[in-house]
Amino acid sequence: MNASVHIVGGGLAGSEAAWQLAEAGVQVRLSEMRGGGEMTAAHQSDGLAELVCSNSFRSDDAESNAVGLLHAEMRSLGSLIMAAADAHKVPAGSALAVDRDGFSAAVTARLAAHPNIEIVRERVDALPATGLTIVATGPLTAAALAGSIGAATGADALAFFDAIAPIVHRDSIDMEVCWMASRWDKGDTKDYINCPMTKEQYLAFHQGLLDGDKTEYKEWEANTPYFEGCMPIEVAAARGVDTLRFGPMKPVGLDDPKTGRWPYAVVQLRQDNALGTLWNMVGFQTKLKHGEQVRLFRTIPGLENAEFARLGGLHRNTFINSPLLLDGTLRLKAAPHIRFAGQITGCEGYVESAAIGLLAGRFAAAELKSEAMTPPPTTTALGALLGHITGGADAETYQPMNVNFGLFPPIEGARTKKADRKKLYTNRARADLEAWLA
Ligand SMILES: Cc1cc2nc3c(=O)[nH]c(=O)nc-3n(C[C@H](O)[C@H](O)[C@H](O)COP(=O)(O)OP(=O)(O)OC[C@H]3O[C@@H](n4cnc5c(N)ncnc54)[C@H](O)[C@@H]3O)c2cc1C
Fold this sequence. Notes:
Helix content is 32%, strand content 17%. The radius of gyration is 22 Å and the shape is globular. Strands 6-2-1-7-17-16 form a six-stranded mixed β-sheet. It has 438 residues and is α+β, with helices and mostly antiparallel strands. The protein has 13 helices and 17 strands. The structure holds flavin-adenine dinucleotide.
């Protein structure tokens, strides 16, 4: 068969995409710069699908956890990454953790042995002008290629850092305490959820930001100049006790309907996905440790029982504004011979990166064979993640995202306990994936 696809990057996404294509009978050239004299700041080896940090694929519970469901869906689509993870799992309770060396060696060996795959240890410096291509170069994409991607997408659409503000599930916000409004009631819509704070609450919160345990910057993160542009909230707080009240926690123009007055300070949340299930804490990007974030942010009035779909963070992370740039099958709208996959699309995590690689591979194979392939339904974990990346997320505030039930269309009228509700989601996903595969 002559048809071929060029995959750039042999990480989690590129390896999975290569496998899916090769299994579909397509010839693959897989370009990976490690092993050809190059390295990233986080990788340690030349192995494909190297896990750069933790050895965990997180929960393996497909009944009540969104990432566990994603594992199950990927297994049913013949995922190489999941097969290698299962073969090299180590004890970790209900989580799926792996022996990282055995895992990476297994992926490398299976790809190297596949007759349809040629692994080339080379750095690619520019987006290919022609030929079906999948770019899966990850959060640490080499500089020259990042420049080429920036030129093709527009510099504003390519980020070199994530500046992640926490995201809260809408149904965990206490709307008896918070209210919907835009500042000065501008516009026809009341776009923000506002959490009011008294002076005492604000001062205690401000102190909590200063005292809270923070994650250290890695040396190569701290030296990146772009960083000043997305200041962590605790750094703003350290500039003065009122800095936040004149910044992201500004109360002016926000009449609390209960008092008819502006509160002392306000935390604002803005809708983060088209479904309206996820809300973003505006300006709350932070390096506070995750446990500290949950504790401190639950002291905010109205967020006492907040469930977080994502916690805040700041990392070196190259990613494109996918909701703006990509079509529903991960093709760059401006150059449809190029697909993106993995963390560079703005999904977050090993499993999510591999999942998007799996879909990119399948979409490319279908395109080469002129077969129709509809994306998986948004009620499945694969479809919910894909839908979020390729249009469900708000392009203006787009930041990396793990798979979670907030990305799934809500089940209307389901008045059930949280644990039962998760089962409703996973049951629906299983049925819909089966129907899609049939
Ligand atoms: C420091 C760090 C820690 C992380 N920790 C975790 C964690 O603990 N758990 C988790 O779930 N996720 C973690 N992530 C997030 C993410 O899931 C991983 O980075 C994941 O590996 C992304 O998969 P990927 O395939 O998109 O990219 P990668 O796995 O990084 O693969 C990209 C590949 O492309 C290659 N490459 C880059 N540029 C070029 C080029 N120009 N030409 C050829 N090859 C190129 C790289 O060498 C690399 O092998 C972490 C990310 C970072 C940066």
